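Record type: ASSEMBLY
Status: queued
Input:
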Amino acid sequence: MGKNVLVIEDEPNIIEAISFILSRDGWSVATHSNGHDAVGVVQEAMPDLVILDVMLPGKTGYDILRELRSEDATQGLPVLMLTAKGQVKDREMAERAGASRFMTKPFSNAEVLNAVRELVAG
Amino acid sequence: MAQQTLAGSRIRERRVMAGLRQAELARQVGISGSYLNLIEHNRRRIGGKLLNDIAQALNVEPSLLSEGAEAALLSALREAAAETEAVVPELERGDEFAGRFPGWAGLIAEQHKRLRSLEHTAATLTDRLTHDPHLATSVHEMLTMVTAIRSTAGILADTKEIEPEWRNRFHRNLNEDSLRLAEGAEQLVAYLDDAGDASGGMTLPLEEVEAMLAAHKFRFDSLVNATPDALSSFIDNQPQLTSDAARDMAMTVVRQLRADARLLSLDMLERQLGDGKVEPARIASDYGVPLSTVLRRLAAVSDDLLPIPLGLVMCDASGTLMLRKPIEGFAIPRFSGACPKWPLFQALSRPMQALRQTVTMTGREAKRFDCYAVSEPIGTIQVNVAPLYHSYMLIVPLEEAGEAEAAVGSSCRVCPLEQCEGRREPSLLADVG
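Status: finished
Output:
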């Protein structure tokens, strides 16, 4: 079994597509679809990488990321942020919150796959 | 000064060219024929609102009347020159250029005017795209659908061997997402169509209320003694108000403006403004009325009693702009947050204290304004219940040059001020990194 990726995204068909391409590449994929308890889910699963959407029901991706960065166990966890807002200020917000990488929707499958490989390879 | 004294001659020349009789032009701009006659013979100075009104009636730029054609052209060339960095025009030879090549000079001036108009349109559209919540949500939703479709289609196109179960699932997902995308696109087009129709882009109740207030110039003196039924009927018959929400909001505002008119009649204000000075605190003190009443009332009557209209803006304690009477040179944003340096917002932290500040509006024209602001509690005062406040700001244009205490903008998106601690987001107009 390959390394673990946790996808936190509220759009089911995007979850399905990302899960498929990562699984085919040998990754073990878990998914979650709301922001409310996302921090607890990450802490329990302790994946090798988190793909995190910004706009989530219950709590924003920025808030979730800030909480993860404030905990020792998840401080250095690679997090790939996804957003439909591609403005400079959104990218800056993601950087300030501690994103390892920021990707703007719509993205290609190859872009996601490359980003995941690079982030986990360190 | 010589140019100013010849403004009357230019008015006469333009009026004759337009085929208008003196009495006819006088009637259009609301003055007597004999007064216009004195102006045309350069025996009365003219400026401000009256000059603008006459220019509008004659369909010419005011500067064409006050300074002459060549001066207007030179002014436009200087403005164009000031806004370019890549090229350095020979400013000292502007007169010679305009004189020798009036056609080319006119073309540059015209292109410059068009550029400014396009910049204004771009700023307005960006303002809307950034701050219209409905539009932002719709675009976000559509981008999410596009992402799902692109990803799913990519899988179907690029995966050589795919299990039938997965293939069927992705086909179903594609179908679902494309339907949602089509639905979202239709809704967005309908929304944009509504925003761009002949009603002037009125989509929000507040915009409808503002259009109705503007149509009446914020004056509702005729309703001072109206019965509740008559008032309701008046509101129901306003063509700009198309929803119950807009009618409810309009009723609240009209009741307030009507109450203001009861406290400060037109006659009272006419006496106070006889010397042309705008002194809200003196009026509030003389008649024992709240300063906010004076600010609202002055803005309402200024179109008729003063040479230049006064502006007004009101917000609640969250800073949300709830009432706007814009004036030339002081842009009040509709969707985006306003400049936090406005005295309007300073007043919220100092309730019941009258503030006055002279400000310069950033931008090309850099006009100066006296701003009077006050925030007052709303509703009934209750024990141990913190009151809510509404803040009002009267905007008085200043014609003479002078020092301003502060430079303020309209909103960050269209403000070129580089060093500003209040900046929330980058400007479209300059690199403010």
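Annotation: The first helix of chain A runs from residue 12 to 24.
Annotation: Chain A touches chain B at residues 11, 13-14, 16-18, 20-21, 24, 55, 84-85, 88-89, 105-110, 112 (CB under 8 Å).
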